[in-house]
Amino acid sequence: MKTAVQQVRANSGSGEKTFQWFVAILLTVGGLLMVLPFAWMILSSFKTEGEVTKIPPTIWPEHFTLENFKILFDSMAFGTYLTNTLVIVLASFFGLFLNAMAGYGFAKFKFKGRGFLFYLVLATMMIPGQVTMIPVYLILNQMGLTNTMMGIVLPGLVGAFAIFLFRQFMSDIPEELLEATRLDGAGEFRTFLQIVLPISTPILAVQAILTFIGGWNSFLWPLIIANDEKLYTLSVGLSLLKGQNESQFALQMAGSTFMVLPIMIIFIVFQKYIIENYTISGIK
């Protein structure tokens, strides 16, 4: 009887290991298929135009060249697009600070209408951004901010999702700690800077990563609000590159690589913080 039970367990364990190997192989093949287009794009950005269109195609460049990237900055104004994108990213980081302050206010200050205002902020998360673009554009037009960098960055300074996450995280900060800081003579702003922000480093770091990704990928709003090419971002410039150089595939690959590679590096390095962020938000 024991032999039969052991045999069943052995067969069950063998079947489970076989299934695990099957899943591992399947995921590995799927991962390689997902990575292949990115690898092809990055390697092709260092190829000449003739090698990119060569048949049969080559995976590894026969002769590495940086000519495609040189053309982007010398002839395609990618330096201007990069500057505009970095300005948007820096403004978004300032907006992140404002989001943290708003979350702290909702978490630790008791004032009339706090619950209503917070639910009103949450309600804005249910409205698609495309719905509010026209009203926001009309408001900025009345203020004379269309076709300006201020008009590009101003609507994205604050966000309901970031305020919600900061509020949820900061709600768990002990009141006794804040009271002790106030008794030592610290004002509210100093308490926020020296106590609340250091404690909120995990959620602050993750939001900084997501803010960078959002600012770096900004496309639709700059395209709508800006008429001057000098205000375009990298995403808009990449779209123009594709439209103006349809047959220059190596140049398009270089532009795509320059746009995507920083995001890939940021995600690979900080992906554990992003996962922790959604874990924290799920627990809250």
UniProtKB/TrEMBL annotation:
<keyword id="KW-0472">Membrane</keyword>
<dbReference type="InterPro" id="IPR035906">
    <property type="entry name" value="MetI-like_sf"/>
</dbReference>
<feature type="transmembrane region" description="Helical">
    <location>
        <begin position="81"/>
        <end position="104"/>
    </location>
</feature>
<feature type="transmembrane region" description="Helical">
    <location>
        <begin position="249"/>
        <end position="270"/>
    </location>
</feature>
<keyword id="KW-1003">Cell membrane</keyword>
<feature type="transmembrane region" description="Helical">
    <location>
        <begin position="152"/>
        <end position="170"/>
    </location>
</feature>
<feature type="transmembrane region" description="Helical">
    <location>
        <begin position="116"/>
        <end position="140"/>
    </location>
</feature>
<feature type="transmembrane region" description="Helical">
    <location>
        <begin position="21"/>
        <end position="43"/>
    </location>
</feature>
<keyword id="KW-1133">Transmembrane helix</keyword>
<keyword id="KW-0762">Sugar transport</keyword>
<keyword id="KW-0812">Transmembrane</keyword>
<keyword id="KW-0813">Transport</keyword>
<protein>
    <submittedName>
        <fullName>Multiple sugar transport system permease protein</fullName>
    </submittedName>
</protein>
<feature type="domain" description="ABC transmembrane type-1">
    <location>
        <begin position="81"/>
        <end position="270"/>
    </location>
</feature>
<comment type="similarity">
    <text>Belongs to the binding-protein-dependent transport system permease family.</text>
</comment>
<dbReference type="Pfam" id="PF00528">
    <property type="entry name" value="BPD_transp_1"/>
</dbReference>
<dbReference type="InterPro" id="IPR000515">
    <property type="entry name" value="MetI-like"/>
</dbReference>
